[in-house]
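DM from R.C. (forwarded with permission)

"hey, sorry to bug you on a friday — could you get me a structure for this? deadline for the figure draft is monday and I only need the backbone to look sensible"
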Amino acid sequence: MSLPEYPHFTLTEVAPGVWAALAGDTGACISNAAVIDLGDRTLVFDTFQTVRAAGDLRHAAEALTGRGAALTVISHWHGDHTGGAQVFDDAPIVATARTCELVAGEDPGDLDAYTAELDGYLETVRNQRDGAEDDAQRERAERNLQVLTLLREEAPGFRFTVPAPIDGDGMSFEGSERRVEMVSYGVGHTESDLFAHVPDAGVIVAGDLLWVGHHPRVNDGDALAWAAVLDRIGGLGPSAYVPGHGPVGGKADADYLGGYLRTVHELVDEAITLGLDAEAIGAIPVPAGSEAWGSVGRFHGSLASLAGTDS
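My reply, with the result:
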């Protein structure tokens, strides 16, 4: 069947009954999400960062499966995966216990505080844009302004939504035609990351445990532990991965990212040993094979943060 079209993301059928919602360039979502049909129940994985994109994701789930979400899974605490959660709050929204704590820690307290926080971010990023030293810095600031402007427009109706904790390190969600396993292997991209395994389809919905064609944010987790998590996921034998950022990937993408993360760990150790400052870290070449990836600033920012030179 032809897939419905939406302005902020593109739907891709990864396997029968498994669809990736891949972020577009409008700023309403910068990470991916997914919809999984279990036969008589529907699972939504991650909720984008804006209400407008999450609303379209809810519509997509209903159009694809004929029903709303019976369960919404949050992969980790970062706002680009959680900001649209209020759209799905008529059914359970779940995450690991540690992710729930981290999401709750982001609660601004009230709508006025949230709006003021966004206004502060907007002023900071406008200053970054106006003071940019090169085109790359200016473009990065413009992208951030695009996202923040949309969030500010939605602020009057925003409701901060904290998921409910799952019991332990995973849960199984059963439907009439398939089972989906939500699994956490502990520290990786963040202190606690949940991924979805669809065994009959051979699909992993990885959240930010996998980035394809983009330099990942490493400094909220542990690079070596993350690489080991990718090795364990590979042991499940998936044929396709829905990443948190970038196009649908495969085992080669996960294997490469594991090597990339081990290289990041080595570079951080070297930077600490040599006492490199932020300027020197900014000159470190990216790992071989990632030269064409987007957001190279994220690579150097992660190195600087992990080496303790970003203050």
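R.C.: lifesaver. The longest strand covers residues 203-211.
me: no worries. The radius of gyration is 19 Å.
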